[in-house]
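Morning F.,

Quick status update on the modeling queue. The single chain you submitted on Monday has been processed. Sequence for confirmation:
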Amino acid sequence: MNRSHTTCNHLGEIIETIIFDVEWSELRISRNNSLTNSDWRFMSDQTPSQEWIDYRVFLRDLPQNFPDSANAAADAWNEYILPEGA
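Structure tokens below.
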């Protein structure tokens, strides 16, 4: 989940970058959407890669791994290398 917004001028030069705070409710909505959108990879006729298994564990564990900061959880998610085909 990307918390930053960058504004550029007409030449593509960065004017400013704003970092937004997120609430747990926003993070959970995005996380739940990502889990729902990847559910099909775990149907009985699919064989998910270990990368996908690890990614979904990472998403499910976000609240427990970052209990004090939704912003830290969002930043960790933003830095997570998504599995191929994400």
